[in-house]
Amino acid sequence: MGEFELIARYFKRAVRPGARGVALGVGDDCALVVPAEGMQLAVTTDMLVEGRHFLSTVAPARLGHKALAVNLSDLAACGAEPIAFTLALALPRADEAFLAPFAEGLFALAEAHGVELVGGDTTAGPLNICITAFGQVPRGQALLRSGARAGDDLWVSGRLGDARMALEVFRGAVALGATEFETVREAMERPQPRVALGRALRGLATSAIDLSDGLVGDLGHLLASSNVGAVIDADALPRSTVLAAQSMALQRLCVLAGGDDYELLFTAPASSRSAVEAAARLVGVPVTRFGAINAAAGLRVVDAAGRAVESGWRGFDHFAA
Ligand code: ADP
Ligand code: MG
Q1: Chain-centre distance for alpha carbon 55
Q2: DSSP SS3 for 286
Q3: Ligand 2 centroid distance, CA of 68 (Å)
C-alpha cells in the first residue's frame, strides 16, 4: 500500500452534507474552512509521540480517539465549537492492523462532535501523530486564561487523577484489581473532551484552561496569565472511588499533579454559582468548586481543615531538568 492509497483508504472521506464550516475537505492542496458570520476561528495543535505521550501497548482505536480528544479539549477550554481538523501522521510502516482501528477510533470521536478531517500529511518515520483542530467562537467571547479576578470561585469538571493512577500501575508503582485498572486505564486512553461544557460556560466563566499537565501546573498558568493568586482545598478535588481508596499521598499526587486529565478548570464570580451549576447540569457534566482567586500572587494548597498541604507539585514540563 503506497502513501496515496493509504490516505484514500483510511483518511479521505466525503465531507458530511450539512457539515458546518467546511467548503472543501481532503484531496486538494488546501482545505477551505469558513467560520460562520461573526465568529472567530479558534486554532490549536497537539502532537502525540510514542513513548512520550502514549505507551506502545495502547490499542490503536484508543490512540485515534485520544489524538483528537486532546485537541478538542483545547477548543473546549476556549468555549469554541469544533469545525474541522488536520492530521499529520508519521508511521513506521503502512500497517492495516494499526491503521484500520486507528481511523475507526478517530472518526468515531469526530462524528460524535460533528467535526471533519479536512487534510493532513502522511510520512514514514517513528510513530508520531499531530492534529491541528479548528473551531469557531463568537467574536470576543472566547474563554481565556487571563480573565480570572480576585473573589472568583475556582471550579473543575469531572474527576481528576485516574489517568495518573493508570500510569503508576503501568510503571509498577501501584497495584490495582483488573476492574479498577480498566476504569483508570480508560480515563488515560479515552478522555472525553468537555466541548459542550466549554460552550455552556461562555459568558459565565471569567477564565478557563484544560488540564493536560496536572492541576497545580495548569492552574499556575492561569494564575500567571490573570495576574492573581489562589487558595485551593486539595481534599475538595473530585476523584473516583478507585482513587479515593488509595493512600492520601497517592491521591494528592494524582489529583494535584496527575496530568492527562483533560477536564476544564475555570473561574466564575461567586454570584454565578447557581448559573454554573445549572449550565453543567444541562450538559450532564459534574462540576466541583474547590478554591478561590486572591488578588495577591501565589498558590496556597490546604486540606479540608485549612492546614497547609505540601505544594511542591509542579506541572509536567518536557524539558525540565
Ligand atoms: P501535498 O503534497 O500537496 O501536500 P499530499 O500529497 O501530502 O499533498 O496529500 C494529498 C492530500 O491528502 C491533501 O489534500 C492532504 O491534505 C491529504 N492528506 C495527506 N495525509 C493525510 C492524512 N493523514 N489525513 C487526512 N488527509 C491527508
Ligand atoms: Mg504533503
Answers
A1: 18
A2: coil
A3: 20
Whether 3 is in the pocket of ligand 1, judged by its Cβ within 6 Å, is no
In what helix (H) or strand (E) does residue 162 lie, and over which residues does it extend?
helix 162-170
CA 271, 273, 278, 283 dihedral sign is positive
Map grid coordinates 475538595 to a residue.
236
Q: For a substitution probing ligand 1, which of 10, 11, 26 has the most ligand atoms within 8 Å of its CB?
A: 26
- Does the pTM surpass 0.85? The reply is yes
Residues with CB under 5 Å of ion ligand 2 are 121
Is residue 60 within 6 Å of ligand 1 at its C-beta? Answer: no
Alpha carbon of 29 to ligand 1 centroid (Å): 7
Residue pLDDT tens, the chain, 321 long = 899 999 999 999 999 988 999 999 999 999 999 999 999 999 999 999 998 898 888 999 999 999 999 999 999 999 999 999 999 999 999 999 999 999 999 999 999 999 999 999 999 999 999 999 999 999 999 999 999 999 999 999 999 999 999 999 999 999 999 999 999 999 999 999 999 999 999 999 999 999 999 999 999 999 999 999 999 999 999 999 999 999 999 999 999 999 999 999 999 999 999 999 999 999 999 999 999 999 999 999 999 999 999 766 667 777 775
Question: What are the residue ranges of CATH 3.90.650.10 in the chain?
Answer: 153-302
Question: Which of the four CATH numbers 3.90.650.10, 2.40.40.10, 3.40.50.10580, 3.60.15.10 does domain 153-302 have?
Answer: 3.90.650.10
CA distance 289 to 268: 10
89 lines ligand 1 (CB under 6 A): yes
Q: Is 11 in the pocket of ligand 1 (CB under 6 A)?
A: yes
